């Protein structure tokens, strides 16, 4: 998403919209074989992620125990106790064996700095991240689809140029910078603009319940979501636009028009559904980025999600937490890629099933 | 023979330019790039390296824009306009190097995998796929944390994490090129792997590589800004991302010093946009079916 | 692991319902963002209604550092320990006026003639927030737990390491027997926990004290709610022996971004923000209803040179630059540091120029070099010192070391500390003038190269407690690592016999004046070794809203700080302003919000209509 992909990906996405070239051989058993292959691949990837995340983060410099106690009166005995508590006194291979055994049972270990199970910490922060990025992905996909359709339908016109230009410009803006500007203008207030929105966080914490709480969270959600949408919708727009342009060259549209169908109807009934395909798959891939995608926006808006947790874990370094988050981030991408792979042949009307 | 090849190349370059010229957005991008490159290259004479000096800073802390300092000063009293121009050098350099590194790795992997095929290719492409599902920014942050803070670290972190897309595209292109009959002819005439790859495949994937590089630079510049903003850049060199980080650390956002925060962000956006426009124009020239510039 | 108490826990909404609400919020935002101004119009008055409903006075404090644990046995971060100060009593406290020890959980104390037995009289009017009396038995249990269970010694074990036996002969008497004399016995900063609650805890290394609210304590506040990185809420302890706090609620709210916190202060979302930058302080000073508190800090900020890292077994390690072992080189480097400029430019005046070791705030221990002993800013003398010591400049103006190679040093810098990076820039230029190169190596966590001795210079800084024992101890030989493989508590591998003997003497000196004198002599000795150069004592820069807080006690009372005090004085003493009840500016801004929202909605609707018209026309064109 915004942070993980940038203008280049727009063009790439246009070039290869269909995930990684899903074979379009889908006929009954063919689809099943395709699905099984993809599933197997995903499992292998997941396992590779699990293994590498352990070793990748062992190369992080720094003794976590020392880092945690830096600047705090700590005796050598206390340091030794901490090491023992964290299992850092064991040899590396033994740490790895423990990690694998636990990970297979779904246990990602215990965070050094919070002394709580990593799974629990992630589960506690996941809803906030899912909420923020989920809303953003849904919104910018919708916005991108709508504007992309309009753009393609009148391609070359002033509206199209303006549309595409604006989307590309916003796409080029660093998301954290846009977030800071939005805070200045719409949270603090500039001149006649009063501070309309909270400066950060997910809720006021003044004890709202029920619908008032929902409104409160929605109020906090506006600025971060606007940031993510502004920076992110270009991708959907451009993919939608180019695939619709492809469709419009198709003979069947001319036929449809010749049959006397209205322009709007041709667009709605024929062109758009076909052009939607690559866009929909891309939406899924974007959803895969959800977990990792908003590190910066979460930082700027003090959003209590996974992004902030990751950055915090990395600076200690809180190895189990970093590992766990990495697995979750990569796992989300693997899962969404898998779903996109599995969906593509099902959605593609050109694949006779 | 060689002069003939030259002739042909020049001809295709001229053809390329003629088509490129019809893409207005691409021209705007190119003009913007030329201007910024000019500013960056002439910086040693226009602003001078002394603009970075804190002990000889001409102004006082966080001055508002004035005739002496058109964009105001930073917390050390240095001219922000000067820093912005000087920072263009690092931002562009990092973007360029990182994109070149990324595309170089991607091209190498892609050509080799596409040319040799078989199980090595499968293995390589599996690794590529695996890299593709890695959260890029997360990986880059980890790399930048592991290595010491320097410009090269940022280049490496971006380069190493962003090559897989290029690799996939280049591999596909390589396979397409090698299926053409004249390659078979070349092989039959005794051309080795090296000959085929260097003489036939590489020139044919070059346009694609060029487009990828152009687009990659804008990604790299944005990623550089992101890493610097997260405090992972080299704090002793002036770059746009670093300026934003400095502005934030000085508390410029809440104290209303918009002139500190706004220009670097706009500069980043403009350069990223310029490269994207150029890249898209190049792509649509090479592959008009994309319809990007229509 | 789950703590069972008799306290009626405040009902908390279950997870499923919360998730459902988040989902609803998601839907709502999705729906509302399509008509953004409408959302503003609805959300703003709702927020105002909330303000009105809560009624009482709330003191909201912006914090950024995460809570590592709410268990006093594990918590080490400043935010956590500050909150424990509010929720639990310690044996003693520090007077807000001059930081001298004053009664807290203990009302009086005395030591035996051999200095090895300390007897504390425990106060009778302190009760736990669940109604049970707080007694010496609780204190004895707390200390014994820390002495017997290494997991319970994680946070404060250094205080009890020298304890031989702790007993409670009766409910009001606590007796601590020591292995050897200990000068910090009236500065035991250990939260005393209720035995009847904590004895049910199984594994102290995993129990975070954050499952059951309110948390039973006997401090001025009771922790009532906690959401990781969102907020910590506290209510006043109405039965607190010193008197209940004035605010009806104290909330620590998280802002990971400093600018967001300041913006929240300007808007009135929070009433207090610590750790301001100079620019933020300057901007806030001009604003109505906001007071900026610029107080002498308790930190020193220093340059440390690697004196040749070594272990107790005598082996040396690390790759510190050999030239820094030469006192002349160190002296020249320090002479070329313009501390006044650093205070002026980097700290923008919000710091005091560095002198000895301990900050002037701790008046009784403060020492500064005078006359010939003092190293002032003198680049010419610095160059001369180097020339005299045989470090000549080569043709390129680079100064050469004894091995004939140009002198190039590295300095370890904290990537998260803007001051390190800023000072690094100045050092590069000043030492560059001397012909000495400097590489600024910024890391998120500097501890790894530091512990390994892999550095030449480093930015160093410690927060000093009213009792200076700890910050002095970290420069003694006793804190060096046992072997190069171990880690010691040493700050900078300094090991000096004279300093050590002075340290040993002050540690057993119970006479405050004599001890202060010894502490000053230690600082003088440390200065003369020339391994450390204290550049500045940074001020505490913080701000609060005067329309929320009518008065608040700083520490020291005259020109002191509010955040991170050695005691609970600031939040305990804070008096709400008359306008703080209800929603002061909340209704105003939301009224404006409604107006803006309605205005924007009108604009959007008008724009939409216009768009529709042009579209229709365009469609008509298309049809032709």
Structural write-up:
The complex is a heterotrimer of chains A (353), B (294) and C (624). Chain A is mostly helical and 353 residues long. Helices cover 73% and strands 0% of the residues of chain A. The longest helix of chain A is centred in the middle third of the chain and has 39 residues. Chain A is globular, with a radius of gyration of 24 Å. Chain B has 294 residues and is mainly alpha-helical. Chain B has one domain: MetI-like fold (Orthogonal Bundle), CATH 1.10.3720. Chain B has 11 helices and no strands. Chain B is elongated, with a radius of gyration of 22 Å. Chain C has 624 residues and is an alpha+beta fold. Chain C is globular. Chain C folds into 3 domains: 85 residues, no CATH class; 278 residues, 3-Layer(aba) Sandwich (D-Maltodextrin-Binding Protein, domain 2); 240 residues, Dipeptide-binding Protein, domain 3 (Roll), CATH 3.10.105. In chain C, strands 14-18-13-17-15-16 form a 6-stranded mixed beta sheet. A 4-stranded mixed beta sheet of chain C has the order 1-10-9-8, with helices on both faces. In chain C, helix 1 packs across helix 2, helix 2 packs antiparallel against helix 18 and helix 15 packs antiparallel against helix 16. Chains in contact: A-B, A-C, B-C. At the A-C interface, helix 3, helix 4, helix 6, helix 8 and helix 9 of A face helix 1, helix 2, strand 10, helix 7 and helix 13 of C. Chain A: One of its GO terms (cellular component) is plasma membrane. Chain A: It is a multi-pass membrane protein. Chain A: This is ABC transporter permease.
């Amino acid at each position: 998403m915004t942070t993980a992909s940038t203008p280049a990906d727009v063009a790439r996405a246009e070039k290869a919209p269909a995930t990684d070239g899903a074979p379009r051989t889908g006929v009954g058993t063919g689809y099943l074989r395709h699905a099984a292959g993809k599933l197997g691949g995903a499992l292998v990837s997941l396992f590779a992620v699990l293994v590498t995340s352990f070793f990748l983060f062992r190369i992080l410099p720094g003794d976590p125990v020392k880092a945690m106690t830096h600047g705090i009166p700590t005796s050598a005995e206390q340091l030794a106790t901490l090491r023992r508590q964290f299992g850092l006194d064991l040899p590396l291979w033994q740490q790895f064996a423990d990690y694998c055994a636990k990970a297979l049972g779904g246990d990602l270990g215990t965070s050094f700095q919070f002394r709580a199970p990593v799974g629990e910490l992630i589960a506690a922060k996941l809803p906030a991240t899912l909420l923020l990025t989920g809303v953003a992905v849904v919104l910018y996909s919708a916005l991108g689809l709508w504007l992309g359709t309009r753009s393609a339908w009148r391609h070359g016109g002033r509206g199209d140029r303006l549309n595409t230009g604006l989307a590309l410009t916003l796409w080029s803006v660093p998301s954290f910078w846009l977030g800071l500007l939005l805070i200045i203008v719409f949270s603090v207030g500039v001149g006649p603009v009063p501070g309309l929105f909270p400066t950060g966080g997910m809720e006021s914490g003044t004890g709202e319940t029920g619908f008032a709480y929902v409104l409160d969270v929605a109020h906090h959600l506006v600025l971060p979501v606007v940031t993510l949408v502004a920076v992110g919708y270009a991708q959907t727009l451009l993919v939608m636009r180019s695939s619709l342009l492809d469709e419009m060259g198709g003979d069947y549209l001319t036929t449809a028009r010749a049959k006397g169908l209205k322009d709007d109807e041709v667009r709605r009934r024929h062109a758009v559904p076909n052009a939607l395909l690559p866009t929909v798959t891309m939406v899924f891939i974007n959803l895969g980025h959800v977990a990792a995608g908003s590190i910066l926006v979460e930082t700027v808006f003090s959003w209590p999600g996974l992004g902030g947790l990751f950055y915090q874990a990395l600076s200690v370094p809180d190895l189990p937490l970093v590992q766990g988050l990495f697995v979750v981030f990569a796992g989300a991408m693997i899962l969404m890629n898998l779903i996109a792979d599995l969906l593509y042949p099902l959605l593609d009307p050109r694949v006779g099933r | 023979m060689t002069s003939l090849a030259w002739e042909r190349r020049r001809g295709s370059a001229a053809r390329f330019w003629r088509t490129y010229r019809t893409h207005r957005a691409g021209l705007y991008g190119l003009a913007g790039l030329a201007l910024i490159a000019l500013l960056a290259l002439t910086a040693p004479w226009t602003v001078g390296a002394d603009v970075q000096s804190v002990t000889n800073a001409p102004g006082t802390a966080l001055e508002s824009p004035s005739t002496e300092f058109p964009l105001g000063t930073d917390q050390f009293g240095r001219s922000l306009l000067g820093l912005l121009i000087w920072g263009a050098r690092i931002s562009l350099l990092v973007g360029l190097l990182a994109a070149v590194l990324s595309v170089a790795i991607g091209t190498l992997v892609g050509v080799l995998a596409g040319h040799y095929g078989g199980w090595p290719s499968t293995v390589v492409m599996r690794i590529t796929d695996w890299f593709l599902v890695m959260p890029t920014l997360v990986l880059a942050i980890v790399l930048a944390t592991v290595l010491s803070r320097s410009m090269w670290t940022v280049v490496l972190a971006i380069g190493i994490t962003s090559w897989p897309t290029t690799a996939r595209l280049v591999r596909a292109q390589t396979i397409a090129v090698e299926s053409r009959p004249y390659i078979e002819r070349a092989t039959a005439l005794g051309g080795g792997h090296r000959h085929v790859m260097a003489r036939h495949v590489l020139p044919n994937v070059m346009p694609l590589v060029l487009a990828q590089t152009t687009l990659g630079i804008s990604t790299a510049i944005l990623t550089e800004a992101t890493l610097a903003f997260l405090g992972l850049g080299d704090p002793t060199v002036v770059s746009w991302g670093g300026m934003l980080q400095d502005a934030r650390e000085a508390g410029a956002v809440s104290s209303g010093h918009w002139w500190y925060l706004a220009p670097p962000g706009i500069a980043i956006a403009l350069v990223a946009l310029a490269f994207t426009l150029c890249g898209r124009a190049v792509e649509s020239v090479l592959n008009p079916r994309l319809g990007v510039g229509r | 692991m789950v703590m069972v108490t008799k306290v009626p826990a405040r009902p908390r909404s279950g997870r499923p319902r919360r998730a459902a609400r988040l989902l609803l919020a998601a839907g709502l935002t999705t729906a509302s963002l399509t008509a953004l101004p409408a959302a503003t119009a609805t959300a703003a008055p709702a927020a105002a209604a909330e303000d009105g409903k809560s009624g009482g006075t709330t003191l909201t404090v912006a914090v950024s550092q995460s809570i590592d644990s709410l268990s006093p046995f594990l918590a080490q971060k400043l935010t956590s320990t500050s909150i424990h100060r509010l929720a639990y009593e310690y044996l003693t406290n520090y007077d807000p006026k001059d930081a001298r020890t004053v009664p807290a959980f203990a009302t009086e104390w005395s030591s035996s003639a051999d200095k090895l037995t300390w007897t504390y009289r425990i106060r009778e009017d302190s009760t736990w927030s669940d109604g049970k009396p707080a007694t010496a038995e609780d204190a004895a249990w707390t200390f014994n737990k820390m002495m017997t269970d290494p997991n319970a010694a994680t946070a404060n074990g250094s205080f009890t390491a020298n304890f031989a036996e702790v007993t409670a002969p009766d409910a009001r008497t606590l007796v601590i027997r020591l292995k050897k004399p200990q000068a910090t016995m009236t500065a035991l900063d250990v939260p005393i926990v209720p035995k009847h609650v904590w004895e049910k805890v199984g594994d102290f290394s995993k129990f975070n004290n954050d499952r059951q609210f309110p948390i039973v304590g006997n401090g001025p506040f009771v922790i009532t709610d906690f959401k990781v990185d969102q907020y910590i809420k506290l209510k006043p302890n109405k039965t607190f022996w010193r008197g209940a706090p004035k605010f009806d609620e104290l909330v620590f709210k998280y802002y990971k971004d400093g600018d967001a916190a300041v913006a929240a202060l300007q808007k009135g979302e929070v009433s207090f923000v610590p750790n301001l930058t100079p620019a933020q302080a300057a901007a806030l000073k001009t604003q109505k209803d906001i007071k900026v508190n610029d107080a002498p800090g308790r930190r020193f900020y220093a340059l440390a040179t690697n004196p040749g890292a070594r272990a107790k077994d005598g082996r040396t390690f690390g790759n510190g630059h050999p030239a820094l072992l030469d006192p002349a080189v160190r002296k020249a480097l320090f002479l070329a540091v313009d501390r006044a400029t650093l205070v002026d430019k980097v700290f923008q005046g919000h710091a005091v120029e560095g002198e000895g070791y301990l900050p002037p705030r701790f008046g009784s221990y403060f020492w500064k070099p005078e006359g010939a002993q003092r190293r002032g800013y003198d680049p010419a003398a610095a160059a001369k010192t180097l020339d005299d010591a045989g470090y000549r400049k080569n043709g390129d103006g680079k100064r050469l070391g004894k091995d004939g190679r140009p002198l190039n040093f590295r300095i370890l810098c904290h990537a998260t500390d803007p001051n390190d990076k800023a000072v690094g820039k100045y050092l590069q230029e000043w030492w560059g003038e001397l012909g000495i190169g400097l590489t600024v190596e910024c890391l998120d966590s500097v501890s790894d190269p530091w512990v390994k001795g892999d550095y030449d210079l480093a930015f160093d800084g410690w927060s000093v407690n009213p009792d200076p024992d700890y910050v002095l101890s970290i420069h003694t030989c006793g804190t060096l690592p046992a072997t190069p493989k171990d880690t010691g508590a040493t700050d900078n591998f300094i090991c000096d016999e004279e300093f050590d003997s002075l340290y040993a003497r002050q540690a057993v000196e119970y006479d405050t004046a004599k001890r202060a004198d010894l502490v000053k002599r230690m600082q003088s000795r440390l200065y003369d070794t020339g391994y450390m150069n204290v550049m500045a004592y940074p001020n505490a820069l913080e701000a609060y809203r005067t329309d929320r807080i009518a008065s608040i006690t700083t520490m020291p009372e005259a020109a002191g700080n509010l955040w991170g005090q050695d005691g609970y004085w600031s939040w305990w003493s804070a008096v709400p302003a008359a306008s703080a009840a209800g929603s002061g500016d909340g209704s105003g801004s939301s009224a404006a919000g409604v107006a803006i929202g309605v205005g924007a909605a009108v604009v959007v609707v008008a724009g939409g209509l216009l768009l529709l018209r042009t579209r229709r026309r365009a469609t008509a064109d298309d049809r032709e």
